[in-house]
Design a protein that fits this description.
508 residues; alpha/beta; single chain; eight-stranded parallel beta barrel
Length: 508
């Protein structure tokens, strides 16, 4: 395969595979590895690539020169016995004709799961020995502060880890995962220190070029970055320079955001000297606020919008890709881990497996929907991801000045209704399918409101004071692409404390 063929190959779905979390604790050996290919082995699976991440990037599942080995549970046993689960999963991917990448969490927070819902924090020796090379302050993981990539020794340490992994396994490429996590540079200085990350990415390219010569095949560079160019700048990621200097082949855009600035990245990559492919990412664990495990209609709306905007594939993150094989769960394990929320662990895993298998089946459809498929389009909410240490709650919002990635800080909702009924809150919603539709508006408290879609008043006017409002809107009022939605109070108030929480349009 040539370099051009490698970059432009089909990637309908890329799994960003949280592999350590996908290791079902009641399975082992060949059965465990088989379970990890559950979604890839579905009939007519749309999955073409697997980007494997093996923990938070500071400990190894093999004997490494640069990172300590996992020292707990069966991970330590595997290392001691030389049972190479990374190699087995990589070989399994290649045997299935799948692209196989090493996805490296560049600034992982040193917490690796030992069982669903439980984590153990391990502070790596490198951090303990060099606290002056870390970013201190803020609310972000004070126990284990993130690395400061403005420090040369930090960049060299991370490059050594990447080089060792690529030398050990003949991966098709490496993904540098900045979503897990920024900041990688001191907050308030990220953009002026961008040269450090640009230098680091050039180092990653040099490693991949060397591995390409060694393995006699292309070895690509991918990076997971914020979903807008402005967000990349906020975090000190000069993707324009990376592209110009040929340091990157694939950009994964965002993590939990439904809204991705396709046009900006398209215009940027269209004029590149080398081909660069862009893929939006959807996370269904650290999900966009208000939409974790959403109805299928919402998934359809997100994917339909991305397809119409021009994306040829997507990356899924934190989907249930491992077949849980719940009938094999040890009763003793169930006794020690009985519940996830209101469900038993087996019920929860089965529900996640069933939901995400259905999503992959829907993605087989491609660019069209069946006539009777309902599709729901939504407006992005700020925050999400059950991570208040990263960003505040949407209803009590403070701008997250430490990082842009994973915050959805430019989400349009929640939005405060104006006290003046002649002043609309103007919202934008992208719609990729038109037809007879229902618009739904959720408020923080009961109010009488008016709603206009592309400046056409929804009739009949709802004069009831309530939190949830619904109107039917004819097909002719919707536009393919961006639509303007205006929402206002019907009566003047001295002040308003009511916020618009959700706006959805379901095309029937």
């Amino acid at each position: 395969m040539t370099y051009l063929e490698a970059v432009t190959r089909q990637r309908r779905v890329i799994l960003n595979y949280d592999a350590v979390a996908g290791l079902m604790p009641w399975l082992d050996g060949e059965e465990l590895v088989t379970s990890m290919f559950g979604s890839a082995d579905l009939p007519n699976s749309p999955i073409d690539s697997v980007f494997w991440n093996w923990g938070e990037g500071n400990y190894s599942l093999y004997k490494s020169k640069h990172t300590p080995s996992y020292n707990f549970g069966r991970f330590a046993k595997w290392v001691d016995e030389g049972w190479d689960i990374i190699g087995l999963c990589h070989e399994g991917a290649k045997a299935r004709g799948l692209e196989s990448f090493f996805s490296y969490r560049i600034n992982g927070n040193d917490a690796d799961p030992v069982s669903p819902g439980k984590h153990i924090a391990q502070i790596p020796p490198f951090k303990q020995e060099h606290p002056e090379w870390l970013i201190h302050g803020g609310t972000f993981n004070r126990k284990s502060p993130p690395y400061n990539f403005a420090i040369k020794e930090v960049r060299e340490h991370k490059l050594d880890i990447i080089a060792e992994a690529l030398d050990r396994y003949d991966f098709d490429g490496v993904e540098i995962d900045f979503a897990r996590v920024c900041p990688v540079l001191p907050p308030g200085q990220q953009w002026e220190l961008r040269w450090a990350i640009t230098e680091f990415m050039a180092g990653v390219r040099d490693i991949c070029n060397e591995e390409a010569r060694h393995h006699k095949k292309p070895v690509l560079v991918a990076a997971r970055v914020p979903e807008t160019l402005e967000g990349c700048h906020f975090d000190g990621l000069d993707v324009e320079q990376w592209i110009e200097s040929l340091s990157v082949d694939i950009l994964t855009l965002g993590c939990r955001s439904f809204e991705v600035d396709y046009r900006a990245f398209h215009d940027l990559t269209a004029h590149a000297n080398n081909p660069v492919r862009c893929y939006p990412c959807i996370d269904d664990i650290h999900a966009t606020d208000g939409y974790r495990n959403p109805p299928m209609e919402v998934f359809r709306g997100v994917f339909a919008n991305w397809r119409r905007q021009g994306f040829t594939g997507v990356q899924t993150f934190n989907f249930q890709n491992s077949n849980p094989m719940v009938e094999r769960i040890d009763p003793e394990y169930l006794k020690n881990h009985p519940m996830v929320g209101k469900l038993t662990i087996s019920e929860w895993l089965q529900s996640q497996w069933d939901l995400h298998c259905r999503v992959y089946q829907e993605l087989q459809v491609g660019d069209t929907f069946l006539d009777d498929d309902k599709v729901t389009f939504v407006i992005q909410r700020r925050g999400g991801g059950h991570s208040p240490h990263l960003n505040s709650f949407p209803w009590d919002w403070n701008t997250p000045r430490w990082l842009y990635c994973n915050t959805n800080m430019e989400g349009q909702l929640p939005a405060l209704l104006y006290a003046n009924p002649l002043r609309d809150v103007i919202l934008k919603m992208y719609v990729s399918k038109i037809g007879m539709a229902e618009i739904r508006v959720e408020l923080s408290r009961p109010e009488e409101i008016e709603v206009r879609v592309n400046n056409i008043l929804a009739h009949p006017v709802d004069v009831k004071r309530k939190k949830s409002h619904r109107w039917m809107i004819p097909k002719a009022r919707l536009a393919l692409g961006e639509n303007l939605i205006g929402i206002s109070l019907r009566k003047k108030k001295w002040y308003s404390r009511t916020t618009i929480e959700k706006v959805e349009i379901e095309v029937l």
